[in-house]
Design a protein that fits this description.
The protein has about 100 residues and is mostly beta strands. It contains no helices and 8 strands. The N and C termini lie far apart (about 40 Å). Strands 1-2-3-4-5-6-7-8 form an 8-stranded antiparallel sheet, with no helix packed on it. Helices cover about 0% and strands about 50% of the residues. The protein has strands at about 15-20, 25, 35-40, 45-50, 60-65, 75-80, 85-90, 90-95.
């Protein structure tokens, strides 16, 4: 299982390579997984992909990191499907589960 980084600053994750101004690959050492990151102004979307999978859709999972403090990239909200994880100074403080209730 891949441990996700506790910072929005992907330059601290591992080795990275720019493919364009708003698209980056981050390589995990000793792994066949690669983070594909699309960069926006206040957020980025991340897809963790398996490099050796022969299928067209080799995405293991994806998430979005949204900036909460422009001066501290360790303070952000990570959304993985429904749960939101709120990090403050790179520490997980809140896990918020969004529940749908019948009307």
């Amino acid at each position: 299982m891949t441990k996700l980084p506790s910072t929005k600053d992907w330059t601290e994750w591992e080795k990275y390579k720019y493919l364009s101004d708003n698209y980056v690959l981050v390589f995990k050492p000793n792994s066949t997984s690669v983070f594909h990151i699309q960069i926006f102004d206040n957020s980025h979307t991340v897809e963790l992909r398996h490099m050796k999978m022969k299928t067209k859709n080799n995405i293991l999972f994806s998430f979005t990191d949204t900036m909460n403090d422009k001066d501290n990239l360790g303070t952000f909200t990570r959304t993985i499907k429904d749960p939101e994880y709120i990090f403050i100074a790179s520490e997980l403080k809140i896990k918020k589960i969004i529940r749908k209730t019948p009307i």
